[in-house]
Design a protein that fits this description.
Blueprint lengths: L2 E8 L5 H14 L5 E9 L2 E5 L5 E3 L7 E3 L2 E3 L3 E4 L10 H9 L8 H8 L1 H8 L5 E2 L3 E4 L4 H10 L4 E5 L9 E3 L5 H9 L5 E5 L3 E11 L2 E4 L3 E5 L6 H5 L4 E4 L6 H17 L5 E9 L5 E7 L9 H8 L4 H10 L3
Parallel strand pairs: 1-2, 1-7, 8-18
Antiparallel strand pairs: 2-3, 3-4, 5-6, 9-12, 10-11, 10-12, 13-14, 13-15, 13-17, 15-16, 17-18
Helix pairs in contact: 2-3
Subcellular location: Cytoplasm
Family: Belongs to the D-alanine--D-alanine ligase family.
Function: Cell wall formation.
Length: 327
Amino acid sequence: MKRKIALVTGGYTGESVISLKSAAVVEKTIDRNLYDVYKILIYPGDWHFLSASGEKIPVDLNDFSITIGDDKITFDGVFNILHGSPGEDGKLAGYFDMIGIPYTTCDQLSSAITMNKGYTKAIVDDIEELNIAKSLQLFENSVKNLQRVEDELTLPLFIKPNNGGSSIGMSKVKSWEELPEALEKAFAEDKQVLVEEFISGREFSIGCYKGKGEITVLPATEIVSSKEFFDFESKYVPGVTEEITPGRQNEEEVARVNRIIPKIYEKLNCKGAIRVDYFLQHETGKFYFIEVNTVPGQTETSLISQQIRAIGMEVRDFYTELIEEMF
């Protein structure tokens, strides 16, 4: 008998647009011989399933079920592809934990921590061979904090919302005159902002997942952007960024990255598929951790999809491994 899988998408933030694109790919790629898939759209005060006839069927939040005609549908598990809140920040995970439904992504605590860039960096800081750029975590946009940044950090700087995604609200600051506007932009997206020193290096993004009980590190993708950094436009507008999979790394670099990534996965108690962004510093080749994404995009051109294909694996089989790892 096929398992019933809820594919959750939508969301409460600007990332919902990307979430819907990811869900469309998962929905058509997932192995229908093994699973019956129901796409559940989650918006503030509006959780529903859209039937084939276009009828909006509400989700019963008591047990996360839907009723189609006389049939009540309950789910064996959840394929979570909801970027941002509540799918990536732990809120949805906590709800599923309470009602006892397994899901493909990190648990409530790991999701909440990894959504916060500053807290994540504090946890992975002691991993051997991993480096972190000097930074400040700000909780208010004040004159005092502006001065702190100037006193304690060196230009150029990256300014980013601490809990955001898709590089929304991010800026690169090359002069102190640009700092107030950059902070204002970031604080418009979040109550916490991370200010960190810029690391000059080659940028990479690498997938890692647990399937069949084993952690697999995928080939890294090198990000070569025509923009100053990998911002929203670089990520989602065709032609702005060149993505090279596998990225140009020598044998020593590949071996070192493959030692570091599983340690990050285990230290943060991750589940399912994650994507880690990092720099290899130009002068030294040192590994500098940027951030971890616990609900990575699954569009046709997404980095994880590229990396799965690079190891000769079908994306459909990858999804099957993520689902089966839940049970």
